[in-house]
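G., the chain you wanted modeled:
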Amino acid sequence: MIKTFTLLLSGHADYAAAGHAANPHVPWLGRWFVLLTPVVAGLLYGPLVQRFAKEARGHGVPEVMYAVARRGGRIAPQVALVKSLASALCIGGGGSVGREGPIVQIGSALGSTLGRVVRVPEDRMKVLVACGAAGGIAATFNAPLAGVFFAMELILRDFTAEAFGMVVLSSVTSSVIGRAAFGDTPFLQLPALGVHHLSQYLLFALLGVIAGAVGVGFTRILYWIEDACDWAWRGPEWARPAVGGLLLGLLLLVLPQMYGVGYPVLENAVNGTYVIGFLLLLLVAKIAATSLTIGIGGSGGVFAPSLFMGAMLGSAFGLTAGHLFPGAVGPVGAYGLIGMGAVFAGAARAPITAVIILFELTGEYTIILPLMTAIVLATGVSRALSRDTIYSLKLRRRGIDLDEKPAGSPFAGLTVATAMEPLPKTLDENQPLSKAADILAASPHGVLPVLTADGSYLGIATARAAAETLADGTHDTTTIAYITHRPGPITADTNLSEALDALVATEGAGLPVLDPARTHLTGWITHQSVLTALHRRP
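Predicted structure as tokens:
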């Protein structure tokens, strides 16, 4: 669909590589036709999004993250079709956005729809959403590993063996189909790259720091321009992409390299085709073009633009370093490739995904070590400069924090102090395991606290651990301290929802409540006491 609309609206397979060429469908307009293509595309997808699926506007990934974290994975089925059409029209009409966000939202919507049809429980629905996202990325970019880790790191935001297995199956199936359609070749064709001198690692590290700052800067400019567009627009929302498309058309008239995704331009930069000044111009222009496309109501992703920015930054950095330190810098392409991953990591703060997706997109293993170095540093810089990522900031601006429990949670405002029970019988650390096992067997929850000789808290012991240890017949003289472990500390001020998570994670059915110094016991908490506190809440 993207190729079809690009050919239809520009007359070229990828206008970003065509310079200021005219559209063969309307040759009398010459290069000026790019003023109208974003307008025509906006007139088509603007009403479509406004009427049928408003969540299809923008880059899509935050909406999927919200659906998984707050809505049990429920996504409206029409989102898949509307997002497909809107994004293809937006990119084909010159929108300077990528296809990663759309395919994540499309695949996730299909996964959610399947879950509704077969009536799966909520936890399985979330996994199906992640499977759809992983499958979309795997097929689109020929990157099965990247699809898996994108879904786990950004969509589910949790790693479990069961979910990982399901997501892998989806990604593998999708990759087989994608390779049958598009072939098994790297997404980008780059020259041979490598590290030729150990001193290059210092340059790669510096590039990672700069790229992390650029990623944060891109995030802030994106939402600043979106705010400016919201402030300036006073008409109906369906017309906003068309009217705003005139501004985008003006930018495309000056720099046609901003048309669509722009992968040919990216490859030229990594191959060393452009000079430093033009690379920096393309970097700034891409930030402006992508932000404007999203701000006027366009539909498309921010992953490909962040790769584009990283390639421009890295290539400019490599050329500059080559002038300053001739003979010790190596090929410019290596810096362009590392810049791609580092800028994405700085914007999205997903280092695992960034490393794997850059490796799979390019097939270049020779620079994996400097790539990891730069990406980790970029992630650290991003965390130091900003609390949010390019995805989470969109949700926070709506008052949604995915790291906090929903305001409507039944545990909101409740602490462990409201659910504490009196302390059960305690065990002494020097007590023989065989004797302590009898006491554990008689305890109501199969878990008891263990104290040191001076009465300080040592940890807890469970009936399960005692049974497994005594079963081999070699620990008859062992003390209870041998099987004692210390779970995460819980105090009276701990949020009740956090305490419940800790209870679920433990082998037994009870946990100690500690004093503020976390050295002595003040109470006990169980599943029953949590339920009682919830029931008694006014």
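The chain has a mean pLDDT of 86.

Shout if anything looks off.
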